[in-house]
Amino acid sequence: MNSLERLSILNEFRDSGEETSFVDGKVVINVPSLKYLNYVDIYDLGHLCSSENMPELVEANVKLVCKSPEKLMRSITSVKHLSLCLYGSLLQHRIEFYQLVHLELCGCGPKWWNLLTWMLQGSPKLQVLKLNMCAEICIRTTPIKRSWVQPSSIPDCLEFHLNTFMWKYYNGRRKEKNVVAYILKNARQLKTAIFSTKESHLQEKRSQKKLKQLVSLPRASSSCQILLV
């Protein structure tokens, strides 16, 4: 399969109860020519435990329930566009995504805020950051518990490259606001920051108040526009 460029591996159930595809046992990928990977496994099976490096990979959609996802993550470090939803810890590993410019991170996983810090530190060229929820696993965003630990030093992507920051379903809790404040304060090239909530009509006035609080936060970039949608 030296010429294979696109690959999807799905182990999930649709809302209708129909099983799309089921992967039982380990998944081994050795396709150096791969450019697009769609890997969804929400049943803690396989997780590309023996994957090889994919130097041509441009785009990846990865959603895993996995205790040790580092082998997979090390194999996709050439990716430029990454959509990531991860139930598993990577904090003890140092992995660099030198080509990554566009990251969409799901906010439903346990301690997703630590994954956010980890990705910022390992993605020096990141230009676009989106915080979202994915359909396969999420019911709602997981609140930040205890204190969010900021990076020990300002990540290169914040100082030199990040120009777009989006947070869909922002809930306005104090600790989430601290994350926003940190990014606005340190993202020197930021042009646009977009925030929206997922509130009922009765809660709309309160959610708009939370969003408007963001407008007054200090910004490192004088040209940064904050949009509330």
Question: Would you give an account of this structure?
Answer:
It is a single chain. By secondary structure, the chain is α/β, with parallel strands linked by helices. It has helices spanning about 70-75, 110-120, 155-160, 175-185, 205-215, and strands at about 5-15, 20, 35-40, 60-65, 80-85, 100-105, 130, 165, 190-195, 225-229. Strands 2-1-3-4-5-6-7-8-9-10 form a ten-stranded mixed sheet, with helices on one face. Strand 6, helix 2 and strand 7 (about 130) form a beta-alpha-beta unit. The protein is globular and about 55 Å long. The model is unreliable at about 15-25 (pLDDT under 50).
Question: What is the strand and helix layout of this fold?
Answer:
Blueprint: E1 6-13, E2 19-21, E3 36-41, E4 59-65, H1 70-75, E5 81-87, E6 102-106, H2 112-122, E7 128-132, H3 156-160, E8 164-167, H4 174-186, E9 192-195, H5 204-213, E10 225-228
Parallel strand pairs: 1-3, 3-4, 4-5, 5-6, 6-7, 7-8, 8-9, 9-10
Antiparallel strand pairs: 1-2
Quick recap of the structure?
It contains five helices and ten strands.
Number of distinct helices = 5
Overall helicity:
10-25%
Tally of strands = 10
What is the mean predicted local confidence, pLDDT? Answer: 81
Which H/E pattern describes the elements? EEEEHEEHEHEHEHE
Distance between the termini: 45 Å
Strand content: 15-25%
Structural class, by secondary structure, is alpha/beta
- Assembly type of the chains comes to single chain
Global morphology: globular
| Sheet with the most strands: spatial strand order | 2-1-3-4-5-6-7-8-9-10
User: What Rg is obtained from the alpha carbons, in whole angstroms?
Assistant: 18 Å
- Unreliable segments of 5+ consecutive residues: 14-23
Largest sheet: 10 strands, mixed
